[in-house]
Design a protein that fits this description.
Blueprint (H helix, E strand, L loop, with lengths): L2 H13 L2 H8 L3 H15 L4 E4 L2 E4 L1 H24 L7 E7 L1 H6 L1 H11 L3 E7 L2 H9 L5 E3 L19 E5 L18 E2 L5 H12 L7 E2 L3 H9 L4 E5 L4
Parallel strand pairs: 3-4, 3-5, 7-8
Antiparallel strand pairs: 1-2, 6-9
């Protein structure tokens, strides 16, 4: 059973004849006749009673017509659902590093949801390497990361430029240069974080390389800094 056969069945029933159905479907009547007879053989039941030069739908044809109407309707609905020109709907799985998920995405996702309420948004956070891997393997539809890397099968575009700021409790005094971090505890995300790498390279350029304490949470990092335990380099939107 093929969609084209179901479409022929419905068109014949709608128009009342094979000849008129052929005009609607832009094919020759003999093609419709042959395809419907093939469908009858497959089903083992007549779909029409042929009365002279006319047709009358059989009980089996009436039953199949109901299913054909539903199937063709769902087919058209499915086509509209996945069409780039259609209204977005269904699940949208977005991944983001924690800084973007916290400081950049809430307003954007709220606006998108208001505009496209039929889309079911799912947000995941993780490291940039994990997020890119999940996108490559179709576990996520797209991600926001802080590195510009090329991966096979992935397209990329710049969304924004992130400004980084050094933060510290007022008790630490002003932070004017790399030397002001000497002797202070530094809290950053674990190795692999591009912001940590930026800080390490900045300290190295000023001969101020020193140990960094790894914490995989901006909430914990900001909490430690606010309590006067040390300093950190974070995106401006986080603090």
């Amino acid at each position: 059973m093929e969609l084209s056969q179901l479409r022929m069945l419905k068109t014949v029933c709608d128009t009342g004849s094979i000849a008129r159905a052929a005009e609607v479907l832009h094919c020759v009547p003999s093609n419709i006749t042959a395809r419907l007879k093939s469908l009858e053989r497959e089903l083992g039941a007549p779909l029409f009673f042929r009365e002279g030069r006319g047709l009358r739908v059989s009980p089996a044809g009436e039953v199949l017509l109901g299913y054909a109407t539903k199937i063709l309707g769902l087919t058209e609905e499915a086509r509209r659902a996945v069409s780039p020109a259609g209204t977005p709907s269904g699940p949208l799985r977005i991944g983001a590093i924690e800084s973007s998920a916290t400081g950049r995405l809430p307003q954007l996702l709220a606006k998108y949801h208001a505009q496209y309420p039929q889309v079911s948004l799912e947000l995941s956070t993780g490291t940039w390497a994990q997020l890119l891997d999940d996108t490559q393997h179709h576990r996520l539809d797209g991600v926001i990361v802080a590195v510009d890397v090329e991966r096979p099968g992935l397209k990329r575009a710049v969304m924004y430029r992130e400004e980084l700021v050094l933060i510290a409790s007022e008790s630490h005094g002003p932070l004017r240069n790399a030397a002001d971090l000497q002797g202070k505890a530094i809290f950053m995300w674990p190795t692999g974080c591009p912001y940590r790498l930026a800080l390490e390279q900045w300290l190295l350029r000023h001969d101020q390389a020193q140990p960094i304490i790894s914490i995989a949470s901006y909430g914990a990092i900001v909490g430690c800094v606010s309590a006067g335990a040390g300093v950190s380099l974070v995106p401006r939107g986080i603090y």
